[in-house]
Design a protein that fits this description.
Residues 168-182, 328-337, 1102-1122 have a biased composition (Polar residues). A hairpin with a 2-residue loop joins strand 16 and strand 17. The chain is built from 44 helices and 21 strands. Strands 18-19-21-20 form a four-stranded mixed β-sheet. Helix content is 40%, strand content 7%. Among the domains are: 581-858, no CATH class; 1006-1177, Hect, E3 ligase catalytic domain, CATH 3.30.2160; 1183-1290, Hect, E3 ligase catalytic fold.
């Protein structure tokens, strides 16, 4: 987490100096990772020294903790205008800060103009600071959570950090108290040590045992939940450890520290003058200086004493550093050593190396780091543990004179170091259960090191003073060579080795990812290269100190490589691009199972480099150069796509390892519904354990943060591409490929894996990666969604939509279906009426897009409901408009109106008759259905066509019918059947598929095709299905999608598609294409019995000959080419493409254009964007397959009981019908033989009792087609019912009441 550079600085002047001092202090104190001595020789070639403090993982982690504390303070003090009625306390502010820290812009919602108060909060007012007095040497240990650290004078070289073996573990309270003491010494120049046992006599006066912090006790209601929870030590420490409070506490402890110094000086003076041996009588011990140490209180609760000390040992808490920043600012920037007595003067800064090494020699490199890009701000993650990492002494920077660093220890010395007990005997006051404790900074797991490990560490520590006179080593050169080490890059061997090390040593991060470890069944290695192993000469248990050294080195290597975008590219790319997808996935699987948080955080930092603009935009000659000042390093789209591929594979590897494609798809469906567990219904059930594993992976905050930044890169890189296109002064005119296209091309590549995988594993990987990429995109969308259909177009949500769109266009090559892209979660929570209507008037921009602009994420049922909601809204608007006008006309023509002339009233009514009509009424006779329809639809205004439809069919011949949908259905069935009749010469029907297509060069005028298109548009607008069958190519053309592939025409012309496929797939080893197929490069078709052919050309201006443009005496076949070029192996691809274009476009262009104009007459052009070709085909044609079971479940009964014998016999008969008879039954009852979109649930099918028939010649079953009601008499037996029902269906014709 980094603070914004454009925001006012809270710390006032000198903040940059403070940042430098932070790095310098951390450089002095954090443990340096070094390559252990038993490392294989092969890995040494990849090891480099790290000179930049920002590239040291321990420094980076401590800095982030410091920034989190600053954010906590900001959340508490700077939420102007957005704070609740009760002010935020530090606990609630910390909770909010942790949430904001997981976001990419943590400070966005904080007021930038308010500064935090300089004074402390009320939380520390009850604290009392003073000296700790002892009663006797055998005193008890005190409270259970109070430690017993003591302040002791420095030993050896100033600034030397030492830690004694046998130190007792302290609790959280005492640890925090020690952290407080670290921040408090006078001028922060006093190097102190932690000592829990009196190993050597001290000069401290008898009866004084350091500095203690107590809290005034007050009465507390122990029955109060709030008092027991918020009055606990843990909650109070959250308030004490804020920067402002730490600064105030440091001043108070400094006063007590001065008192302690005065007492020590008095004791030294008394001992020198009286000839004492350093011990004064107890009677001379001064009394407790209450006036200097106590502070007033406003509230307090009972709490035991807290002792503080300043400890800078390697086991000290690095997390406490952020608490020293504000309180040490003055000491760092302007130390004043003259305030101390001459014989007690210490170094001016306890965190900087002593005077033996000059300040300039400290390796604090000011080079910019990768996380300093201005477009993105690195943030602290709440998942980074706050427990410090206790480190081994052997890894701490040594004093200026070093006999042998850890990296120089010989392998033979690892287990043979002398026992430190001979050098430093234990204190007689030490408890036997005290031991050296080691704390895992990532896991928070406390483990005890062995005695052998402790001895080896103490030897390296305690023998330095003895070795110093004999070593003639230049301190400067020694320190320069003792830098942190890391791997410079990764390869498969290195990844396998470091992951095996952490797994064998049990030092991996604790995580919830599955599988938690990579066993031998999953582990892969290259057959050509030998695996790396550590050098071990004994079979003894592996030492704890070496385990810890390996842990530090591996963590530093992962951080150093994965946080540097160039190092990532060097590790996972070659001259041919990124390594194969499966090997990359395996590498990420290994890394995410040993250090997932570290991997995700490091890659998140590396992605910051992709927000830097390309070099073209940074050029001084570019008009956009002023927008990107100070940005130097940049990456091309090819490099950006490679880095994004690595990050995406890390996210894919984080998901549970599923090896069943069906299970993988089912889990994707569960996540698409926004569910954690499948509850039945349309989602298949899966094991609860697997569902919870998915939930753990896709809700991991670090992984989600990486996914959000990763998806944000996509719109950013595309904006850069647009700026480059607009840049008139660009040097290179070649446009860079799109970053998403490059990313998907890596997934599509069929490169042979570097590692050995079985065929089944490779097949599963090809299915796993695209599905999980969509799952991660949906996870980010669900996380970012605010419940509105308008979403951000340039953020993570917009990037996820862009990725899904690109994958949707390539879904066939990625082995994906339409169902993989759906996210039913959004459709279930959006208003199905208002949302699509508001979308019509919404204009998408870069910043805001509408979710309906991406219809593929909705299921077909939702899209149909949105489409019909738009049509219904337009229909209602026209109806209400005409109703309002009609009411005004009625008011004018009323008898008491101002218009008295009847002639004027009649003229006014005639003029406004069309505008005031509420319905579109068609009077159709059965003898001339199509002609009457054409006559009454010709030149109708758009507002008339959009009104509700009413059809009067056959009323001129005495038929009676109330139009509740059945009359309309009958009218369209008759009209369309007549219009598509091949005898009229407008359409042709394939004998095999019964598909209808336009007649090339038809003799019918174009206006008739337009009216036929209007008829179909009117039916779709009113929600009716038609008994027609068009090829899917027609619907693709109606939606503006190209028809260029063979599968686009396979349903309409299957024989032709098979023949062209054979041409494309023919192997010329078996003969040349021109000799085997003997095809000419021309398009041929039959026009009214005449074979017409033309040589195909690639020009788009070619038109097909029409009968109306040729005299009758000149046949069209006369212009057929005598000779045309042959189709060869070289031009067969072009031949197939041109043939498809001539078949579906050139030969029928005039007819289709007229048909399309009529089809779009009633439908809003934007509403058609919701539909796919398949969905539009279902809207127009419905479904021809009739499921009797679904029809029976949807049926309703009037006068019948569902268990009646006749009802059971009826469904038994219908179940045995073939498809033709089933369609006849459905048409007999509903006037349509098609099932509409949505299934049988959208059909009204009512079975009503119509009396009893005891004889053999009773009434036939009849139907109210208007209402979808079947009138079924009760027959004598099943055979009579079958006979009468079949007779009714075979002879059904006409319309009306039976």
């Amino acid at each position: 987490m980094t603070r914004e550079v454009n925001r006012p600085v809270d710390n006032g002047p000198g903040n940059n100096d403070l940042d430098d001092d932070i790095l310098a202090a951390l450089w002095e104190q954090v443990p340096f990772p070094r390559l252990p001595a038993d490392a294989p020789s092969e890995i040494k070639e990849l090891v480099i020294d790290v000179e930049n403090p920002r590239r040291v993982y321990a420094i980076y982690r401590a800095s982030r903790r410091h920034d989190l504390q600053l954010l906590v303070e900001n959340c508490r003090k700077r939420l102007a205008g957005k704070a609740p009625i009760r002010r935020y306390n530090p606990t609630s502010a910390r909770t909010l800060a942790i949430f904001l820290a997981s976001q990419d812009d943590a400070d966005d919602r904080l007021c930038p103009h308010l500064r935090p108060p300089t004074g402390p909060s009320d939380a520390i007012k009850p604290l009392i600071f003073g000296l700790k007095y002892t009663t006797s040497s055998n005193d008890a240990a005190g409270p259970a959570y109070a430690g017993v650290p003591k302040v002791k004078p420095p030993k050896g070289i100033p600034g030397r950090v030492a830690s004694r073996r046998g130190q007792a573990p302290t609790s959280n309270a005492s640890s925090s108290a020690q952290m407080n003491r670290k921040t408090t010494g006078r001028n922060h120049n006093r190097p102190l040590e932690v000592e829990t046992t009196k190993n050597k006599p001290t000069s401290r006066p008898e009866g004084i045992d350091g500095i203690q912090i107590t809290e005034k006790s007050v009465s507390k209601d122990y029955r109060s939940f709030a008092a027991n929870v918020f009055g606990s030590v843990a909650f109070k420490m959250l308030e004490w450890l804020t920067p402002n409070n730490m600064e105030s506490m440091s001043k108070k402890v400094a006063v007590v520290d001065n008192t302690l110094d005065s007492i020590e000086r008095l004791r030294e003076s008394a001992s020198q003058s009286g000839g004492q041996s350093g011990r004064t009588s107890p009677t001379s011990t001064p009394s407790r200086p209450e006036s200097e140490s106590e502070v007033g209180i406003k509230r307090a609760s009972e709490m035991p004493r807290y002792t503080t000390t300043r400890a800078l040992s390697p086991k000290s808490d690095m997390n406490g550093f952020y608490q020293r920043v504000h309180s040490e600012q003055s000491a760092i920037s302007n130390p004043n050593p003259q305030n101390l007595p001459p014989h007690r003067r210490r170094t001016s800064n306890a965190r900087i190396r002593p005077s033996s090494v000059s300040k300039s020699q400290t390796k604090v490199v000011s080079e910019p780091s990768v996380d300093s890009i201005v477009d993105e701000k690195a943030l602290i993650s709440p998942n980074i543990p706050t427990q410090p990492e206790k480190v081994s002494k052997g890894l701490i920077r040594p004093p200026p004179a070093i006999a042998r660093p850890t990296s120089q220890v010989m392998e033979s010395d690892i287990h043979t170091l002398p026992d430190s007990d001979s050098l430093d005997p234990p204190s007689p006051h030490s408890r036997p259960d005290e031991h050296y404790s080691q704390l895992d900074g990532n896991n928070g797991e406390e483990t005890s090191s062995s005695a052998e490990t402790t001895r080896s560490l103490d030897v390296l520590d305690d023998t330095q003073d003895a070795l110093e006179p004999t070593n003639n080593i230049d301190p400067t050169s020694e320190l320069d060579s003792y830098l942190p080490q890391s791997l410079s890059r990764f390869n498969v061997q290195a990844i396998n080795f470091i992951c095996d090390v952490l797994q064998e040593d049990a030092t991996s991060e604790r995580h919830l990812l599955e599988p938690s470890t990579v066993d031998e069944s999953i582990r892969r290695s290259s057959n050509r290269l030998k695996s790396w192993k550590r050098k071990r000469k004994s079979q003894a248990p592996y030492p704890q100190d070496l385990k810890f050294q390996w842990k530090l080195f591996v963590e530093q290597s992962i951080f150093h490589v994965l946080s540097d975008p160039q190092a990532v590219l060097d590790s996972f790319t070659s001259a041919n691009g990124v390594i194969d997808s499966q090997t990359l996935w395996y590498c990420m699987l290994r890394l995410t199972r040993v250090a997932p948080n570290l991997v995700f955080d490091s890659l998140w930092i590396a992605l910051a480099g992709l927000f830097a603009p390309p070099k073209t935009l940074q050029s001084m000659r570019s008009p956009t150069s002023k927008m990107f000042l100070g940005v130097k390093k940049s990456f091309t789209n090819v490099e950006a796509a490679s880095l994004m591929s690595v990050c995406f594979h890390a996210l894919v590897a984080a998901a549970p390892l599923v090896n069943d494609p069906r299970q993988l798809n089912d889990m994707s469906r569960i996540r698409a519904h926004g569910l954690s567990l499948a509850g039945g219904g349309t989602v298949a059930r899966q094991p609860t354990s697997l569902c919870l594993q998915y939930e753990d992976a896709f809700t991991d905050s670090m992984a989600l943060r990486l996914a959000r930044r990763l998806l944000r890169v996509i719109p950013t890189r595309r904006y850069f591409d647009e700026l480059i296109e607009l840049d008139l002064d660009k040097e290179d005119g070649v446009k860079e490929p799109d970053v998403v296209e490059l990313l998907l091309s890596h997934l599509e590549s069929s490169t042979q894996p570097t590692l050995h995988f079985s065929k089944a594993e490779r097949s599963m990987h090809e299915k796993r990666v695209p599905v999980l990429l969509l799952d991660w995109a949906r996870a980010v969308m669900l996380h970012e969604w605010e419940g509105k259909p308008e979403v951000s177009g340039d953020g993570p949500f917009g990037g996820a939509l862009s990725l899904m769109t690109a994958m949707y266009h390539k879904r066939q090559s990625l082995l994906l279906g339409d169902v993989h892209f759906r996210a039913e979660y959004f459709g279930d929570r959006l208003d199905p009426i208002q949302m699509p209507v508001s979308w019509l008037s919404f204009t998408s921009t870069r910043q805001k897009v509408h979710i309906l602009d991406y219809p593929y994420i909705f299921n077909p049922t939702s899209l149909v409901s949105y489409f019909r909601a738009i049509n219904f809204s337009r229909m209602s608007h026209c109806y209400e408009e005409s109703t309002s006008l009609q009411s005004r006309i009625n008011a004018i023509i009323a008898t008491d109106s101002l218009v008295t002339e009847s002639h004027q009233k009649n003229v006014l009514q005639d003029l406004l008759k069309v505008a005031s009509s509420k319905y579109l009424i068609l009077d159709i006779s059965r003898k001339n259905v199509l002609r009457d329809a054409f006559d009454q639809l010709w030149r109708r205004q758009e507002r008339e066509l959009l009104r509700p439809l009413k059809v009067h069919l056959g009323e001129d011949s005495g038929e009676e019918g109330f139009d509740s949908g059945g009359v309309q259905q009958e009218f369209f069935r008759l009209a369309v059947a007549e219009a598509l009749n091949p005898t009229y010469g407008a359409f042709v029907i394939d004998d095999r598929t019964r598909m209808t297509w336009f007649q090339p060069g038809s003799v019918q005028p174009d206006w008739k095709f337009e009216l036929i298109g209007l008829l179909i548009s009117l039916a779709v607008y009113n929600g009716l299905t038609l008994p027609i069958t068009f090829p899917k190519a027609l619907y693709r053309k109606l939606l503006g999608e190209p028809v260029t592939e063979l599968h686009h025409i396979a349903d309409g012309w299957p024989d032709l598609a098979n023949g062209l496929t054979n041409v494309l797939e023919w192997n010329e080893k078996d003969g040349s294409v021109e000799d085997v197929f003997v095809l000419t490069y021309e398009f041929s078709t039959s026009m009214f019995g005449q074979p017409v052919s033309r040589e195909m050309q690639s020009s788009n201006s070619i038109s097909w000959p029409q009968f109306s443009s040729h005299p009758d005496s000149t046949p069209l076949s006369a212009s057929n080419p005598d000779s045309a070029p042959l189709v060869t192996g070289d031009n067969r691809n072009a031949y197939v493409s041109d043939y498809i274009r001539y078949l579906t476009d050139v030969s029928v262009a005039p007819q289709f254009d007229a048909f399309a104009r009529g089809f779009r007459a009633c439908l809003h052009p934007k509403s058609l964007q919701l539909l796919t070709p398949s969905l539009l085909q279902n809207l127009v044609e419905g479904t021809q397959e009739i499921d009797v079971g679904e029809l029976r479940r949807a049926a309703r009964y009037v006068g019948w009981d569902v268990s009646h014998r006749t009802v059971r016999d009826f469904w038994s008969i219908v179940k045995r019908y073939d498809d033709r008879m089933r369609r006849k039954l459905l048409e007999f009852v509903t006037a349509s033989d098609r099932v509409p979109v949505g299934g049988m649930a959208n059909i009204q099918f009512v079975v009503q009792k119509n009396g009893e028939e005891t004889g053999e010649n009773g009434h036939l079953p009849t139907a109210y087609t208007c209402y979808g009601t079947l009138l079924l008499p009760e027959y004598r037996d099943k055979e009579v019912l079958r006979e009468r029902l079949t007779m009714a269906l075979e002879n059904a014709q006409g319309f009306g009441f039976a």
